[in-house]
Amino acid sequence: VQLVESGGGLVQPGGSLRLSCAASGFSFSSYVMSWYRQAPGKERELVAVIGSDGGSTMYADPVKGRFTISRDNAKNMVYLQMNSLKPEDTAVYYCKGRMRVVEYWGQGTQVTVSS
After folding, report:
1. What are phi and psi of 89, to 5 degrees?
2. Cα(96)–Cα(104) distance, rounded to whole angstroms?
3. Are strands 9-11 and 109-113 parallel, antiparallel or unpaired?
4. How far is CA 70 from the centre of its chain?
5. How far does Cα 103 stand from its chain's mean position?
6. What is the signed CA dihedral for 25, 32, 99, 76, rounded to 10 degrees?
7. Are 43 and 50 in contact (CB under 8 A)?
8. The pLDDT value given to residue 5
9. CA pair distance 20, 71, nearest whole angstrom
10. In three state form, how does the secondary structure of 5-61 look?
11. Residues of the chain with pLDDT under 50
12. How far is it, in rounded angstroms, from Cα 35 to Cα 48?
């Protein structure tokens, strides 16, 4: 089982990034996929969730209207489009797959928003 995040980096405030998460080794289309983030000195927090068929999404209040989660079950990929980035979005971003009590996590990708 693998979840591999990519697309992080350094971006100026107001900029955009698109994170990708490549899944393998499990039945991806059966799993609810999520993005989490963890800033230095803070607990990991939920950013966005997408249902197994992509038909439902949910966002944390700090990112509503700026971030969009999506998935491509044919490619075993989940994405996080991040627009209007703010310094407080700086964190390591993780993707997670969950089906009932089974969870898989990626290793994370660093996003830094700074001028």
Report:
1. -85, -5
2. 6
3. parallel
4. 9
5. 15
6. -10
7. no
8. 98
9. 9
10. EECCEEECCCCCEEEEEEEECCCHHHCEEEEEEECCCCCCEEEEEECCCCCCEEECH
11. none
12. 5
